[in-house]
Amino acid sequence: MAGVASASDNVVDVVATTPIVADLARMVTGQRARVSGLIPPMGDPHTYEPTLRDLRSIAYADIAFTNNLLLEQASLIRVVEQGIRPGTPVVALAENSSRYGGELIQLVEDVALDTVWLGMRIAGSGESFGASRTSEVELQATGVRGPGDVAAFLTTAFGEPEVYLNSADGFDRESNYKGDTATLPVDAHTHMSWAFSQPGIYEVDFRAQVIAEKGARPQPVGDTTVTFAVGVSPTEAGKDKEYVLNEGHQDISVDLDEGKILIRGDAPAKGDTRINYSYPPEQAVVEVPNSAIKEIPASAAFRFLGRPGTDTYMLPQAVLGKHVHGELDPHAWQNVSNAIAYLQLIRDKMIAVDPKGASEYTANADRAVNQLLDLDSYVRNRIASIPRERRHLVTTHDGYAYLGKAYDLDIAGFVTPNPSIEPSTRDMVTLTRTLENLQVPAVFLEPSLEGRAGVLTETAERLGVQVCRIYGDSFSEEVTGYIEMMRYNADSLARCLNRQD
What is the third-level CATH fold of 12-105+336-368? Predict the structure, then answer.
């Protein structure tokens, strides 16, 4: 049912965050309820900010459905949970889909770098601080001691840096100062690039504080100092540094349950034989080897690192693009079986808020499940028609792990060897070798990215590789629903990867 949410017409009002969630909700509700989607068809759930109309829809809603697992912006989830009437259910479909047979995929980071890569993480529930899933934690750098300057930043998928720490422009240690600060939702982590202008031992001071709800006074969690050995032996950091962190994925972690800042990762420090890799910063040193020396690119966007063409010591962020997420991949709907789980969950929650509509919701859901079972077979058969040696997906958006696992499709991806700088000539050579070695006839871009993925499209055109469309998080004027989207993707993969030169 279409229309604007209202409190006066006795129609059950449903709010859904993403276009995919809204479409699945409409399959179940039919004409029985009114579904208001917050994010428009071409909107990006990772960045969308709610409008005044969204606030009205949320305020009148009888139930809200989200995808979550940190797919949507934390600010959007906060608006939904705080703007909805007390007692109104807010249902995170991906997080609850396992009860209906949904299968979630653990996020596996790329550790194929020859240096440690260092991110930032928020761990624990934060209940002692009055925190919830919509709370935020600030991790602020307050000082640096060392022979040169330190910067920490993220590089977007198209080469622009977002700076979080830059000692070259100084520090302000006042409690309300927001510079040199990374802000993360509870139970999330982010990748980060680190740059050091000179070799030597660096000590970077950090403090953390919790903002339980918007506008609330920050509550201090703790402070610490992280030591880096840049281009020198870690032994120069002192005898108290028992652990040398020089490989795998490590995070500067704010542990809300323990009330302290630690370093935690998925690889041990040198010589550590324990299973739980958690290190007090005062006992650890992060090694930045001489092999990490990189040339500062010519782009004006990177002038904060120093003069173009000069060297800097770089720990790259390992995964291209701003990428704040939890432990599970949120793009579950790319496996049609998970979308079926979404439907069944929506059905049961709708019956709970509108028992009189139980038979209608059940009939609609049964019909939709049958359509999705047919869809699952269609996608499986179309992808199976691609010769195994051609079944590689090369794209700029890392959102297709479920598609690959469910339908036997290799997610080849494209990440530069050093994503902390703009794609270089060497990066284009690497991409060229990837496409040549895999012998793929096509690469795939989402409609919203087609005009901006220059390196991928230019290299593809030079090699005579076709650039085709694929849909991930949203729809378009051409593709307006979930079933249509998945069929389109299957057809696009089969058509483009089966292309004969």
Answer: Rossmann fold (3.40.50)
